[in-house]
Amino acid sequence: SAVDQGKGTKALATWTICLKAAYDINPTFVHVDKDMAEISMTQQVWRSAKISLCWWHLRRAVRTRLANGKLATTTYNAERAHTKFDFINVGFGPVA
Q1: Do 63 and 84 contact (CB within 8 A), yes or no?
Q2: Strand partners, 31
Q3: For 15-65, what is each residue's pLDDT tens digit?
């Protein structure tokens, strides 16, 4: 990739830290468009803010993914996901 991993998160975090300091902004929730850099930045800068995903972007991502005839099958690892994003509940799963 042309962009170093974490570069977007670092840039966003730098900007929001300045914003937070200058205007004392401490939101209770942050609405994002499913961008992992935005989610990571929010967790770093506003640790107690709830993260909500944009419904339109979420629907578009699902439709785009389902429209692709070849769906990649990456095994989901709840522990690894929880390590990266501690708001993920490792015990969550489908009801039998």
Answers
A1: no
A2: 52
A3: 999 999 999 999 999 999 878 899 999 999 999 999 999 999 889 988 888
Q: How far is Cα 8 from Cα 39, in angstroms, rounded to an integer?
A: 11
CA-CA-CA-CA dihedral for 52, 22, 6, 58, to nearest 10 = 20
* CB distance 45 to 20 below 8 Å: yes
Residue found by looking up tokens 């966003």 in the block: 12
> Directed axis angle between helix 36-45 and helix 7-23, to 10°?
40
Whether the Cβ atoms of residue 76 and residue 88 lie closer than 8 Å to each other = no
Cα end-to-end distance, the chain, whole Å = 40
Q: What is the pTM of this model?
A: 0.59
Of 30, 33, 27, 29, whose CA–CA distance to 54 is shortest?
33
Alpha-carbon distance of 66 to 22, in angstroms, equals 43
